[in-house]
């Protein structure tokens, strides 16, 4: 598991190329589920999340056998945050559910949305 901070500007999109490994060996993603969830409070349910990504909705499998996938946080996801003059700090986790039903946290930490200056790019 990797604790980290993601800093992203309001209205910004970001794409990550990812790979799941176990003890340095690529994890076959056949039968696996992946999720990336951002919440304002840890006590919130998934239904109260600011946004949640899954396979087919923000997560695209690139190579199933080598565990490679692409995770995309869209402009609409970061635009959904309230307008603020300060950084807004949310919590995130990124998980995989294996075919056995076991769940592993791949990453977790703070998802920090910085205020934007420009509303429209011309």
Compute the average pLDDT: 91
What strand order characterises the main sheet?
1-10-9-5-6-7-8-2
How much of the residues is beta strand, in percent?
Answer: over 45%
Top CATH class: Mainly Beta
The class by helix and strand makeup works out as mainly beta
Number of domains in the coordinates? 1
Radius of gyration from CA coordinates: 15 Å
Oligomer: single chain
Distance between the termini: 41 Å
Query: What's the name of the CATH homologous superfamily?
Result: Immunoglobulins
Biggest β-sheet description? 8 strands, mixed
Low-confidence stretches: none
The tally of beta strands, per DSSP, is 10
- Give the overall form: globular
**Known CATH architecture:** Sandwich
Order of helices and strands: EEEEEEEEHEE
Proportion of helical residues: under 10%
What is the CATH third-level topology name? Immunoglobulin-like
In short:
With 122 residues, the protein is mainly beta. The protein is 4% helix and 52% strand.
